[in-house]
Amino acid sequence: MRQNLDVISAYAIMLGLIILVGFLQSWSIALSILCFCLISAVMTMGANIQWGYAGLINFGIMGYTALGGLAAVLVSVPPVQEAWQVGGLNMILCAFLIAFMVFSIRFIIKKYKKSNKRNYAIAFVIIVGLVILRLVSGPAIESIEAVNPATTGFLGGMGFPILFSWIVGAFFAGGLAYVIGKIALGLRADYLAIATLLISEIVIAVIKHEDWLSRGVKNVIGLKRPVPYEIDLQTKEWFINLVAKFNQGTLNVITDTLAREQMLKQLVIEGSTVFVKLCFAGLFSIVVIILLIITQKALYSPWGRMMRAIRDNEEAANAMGKNVVKQHLLIFVLGSAIVGIAGAMMVTYDGLFTPGSYRPMRYTFLIWVMVIVGGSGNNFGAVLGGFAVWFLWIEAAPIALFLINFFTSGLEETNALKAHLIDSIPYFRFLMMGVGLLLIMRYRPKGILPEKIKHV
Amino acid sequence: MDYINAIVLLLNYIFVPALSYGSQLALGAIFVSLIYGILRFAYFTAGDLMSFGTMFTILFTWYFQSLGFSLGIFPTALIAIPFGIIITIFYVLLKDKLVFSYYRFKKSPPVQLAMVSIGTMFVTQAIVRIIIGPFDRRFFDGEKFILKANEFKEMTGLNEGLTIKSTQVITLLVTIVVVSILFWFLNKTKTGKSMRAYSDNEDLALLSGIDPKRVVMITWVIAAILATVGGTLYGLDKSFKPFTYFNNMLPIFAAAIVGGIGNPFGAFLGGYVIAFSEILVTYAYRKFFIYLLPESIEPDSLLQLLSTDYKFAVSFSILVVVLLFRPSGIFKGKVL
User: Fold this and answer.
1) CA–CA gap between residue A81 and residue B136 (Å, rounded)
2) Which of B125, B313, B324 sits opposite A430 (nearest CB)?
3) For residue B295, how many C-alpha atoms fall within 13 Å in the half-sphere facing its CB?
4) Of A149, A184, A400, A449, whose CB is crowded by the most CB atoms within 10 A?
5) Spelled out in words, what is the top-level CATH class assigned to the domain B2-325?
6) pTM, 2 dp
7) A103 inside 8 A of chain B by CB
8) Number of Cβ pairs < 8 A linking chain A and chain B
């Protein structure tokens, strides 16, 4: 019971903080913090599965997030017919070519023994394949990107509801993780960290610069939403009635009909943003809860015990007949797939896909801070870490402003030092994250909610 | 004549820029490699330590400039570097005392130390941005070019110009001096040898009376020197922007691993491998072949293997290939 008390009180404090933001700043801000907290929680659960369950370091979170986002674009955007007409055939041909290359390399590897000749053959296939790819795709890409470049200039997607992309994103990220895992999982821990970090940079580079696929840095905007739009809500009868009912107290005070109309209009506009964010928060919570149930079940299943055994002593687990390589690959794929879901969720929430915004600081290292601070190996800890760190990340600026004003209260408003500090408020969040991480690692190395293993 | 033109073209667009970029990477890679060899963890603060040192060099440069002090044709930053180094040394030693030493005494696994270095990375980044801001800063003064394209054309009568910026020459010279002193230190002096012994076999080194505190301290001092010098050279050559420096951490790691991590000489060469491959693969060879081939078979495409957008991707792909086929690095990673 005591351990549950920990969890409950930690979450209660967190929720209380968010509600406090609602009262002090605005409900819209509080809800968007909540939404991003939930998204971060999904990411940390993915990272936690890899690090907490299996001890695998994955610094490529940014790459999977971006792939999830790409999935949202490819699923929800309607196909650009014209672009498909001018270059679709060639691009499909390219896909077949790549598949053919992969299979022929696999064939060579299976058929022939390890030798220099084999390596040369593989190199030959790759080089020839790349040249042909270049020849086939080059003109097609050019013509696709020439189709109405201001608004489209890419192939577009499937035109399905965007919610599907959460699953597709998981598959994209999982597929990438399979390839990376096949390549890199044999490496030692710190090499693996660096290799995944660099591979995720490659993924971002591809998404940024292959305009025919993702519009690149031109961004995709106006993605469809799974929840109603504010503008539509504001004209709906039932919604206006709902808002009126909620704010009866304030409205009844005003006697003038015109002023009352005005007030109601204002309230409806405010209410619509809050309502939309509430819908998002509801959707995200469903995902988080489902994932929590699954991961908790997995953690205490025989499979979870095996993963911990592998993490704690790889050789012993191997000696007991557990296939360490296979399990590592499995968990790498699963964790990355969860991160992919989060990536798709984020793009869904934002309604736009901006490849230029994917930076390792925000999407890899921050997530790692969340996992470590929250408590690796403990799902509730990871989720809490996502909440707490994201909250601090957003609220760092107001806190820093308050602290600066407090400590420099003796100085005048025009003081150069004070002005400079106030100008650089956005960067205090890095300081807080760093100091927070260092303190946690030093004094509570297992995180706020440490891993607890139930012995059955 | 066409052949010479083609060679000059390559010199101008590939060789000279790659050489200076490679030197800047090499300085970073050496200290990452050293830290990996002696302190035994991946030092993720590398890029930000460079920006920290550069920042103080810039601040001192501005101070000297405000005093009206200048080195004539040389950039004022050269005088400011030692001051930047001193502050950076204080900073890394303080960081070691407050943060890293605790984990070292506890004999924490390298992964944990790497995580801790991520914490210091956040802190360093915050300090740099709070003090100097996130913006692009140029602090170069003095004579910009040693050889201008037009002058070269007039001098030789060739079609192609060769531009040599003074920062490129300074980079090269400073790198040669710093790296030779470093390798002399590591290979010839007693302290350097004790460092190599420590990285080779810690227990044996401790048994033979090597003071680990001293070894660690000297490693940090060397790291601070190399970071400041490398960062300042990069900033002089291009410009100073904290985000770029953070990103440079990635090719630096690539260089260190390609050269065999824990092996400073390998890392030194690794820097050039990365720089040259980045530029060789993303250069458009069209003009080069126009000079070489007869007119009838002149190419009409750009003849570029990959667009310049993939510059980083190239070095990382090399890294991945090296990790797969030769995890100990091209230059056989023997520790130190």
Assistant:
1) 42
2) B125
3) 0
4) A449
5) mainly alpha
6) 0.90
7) no
8) 116
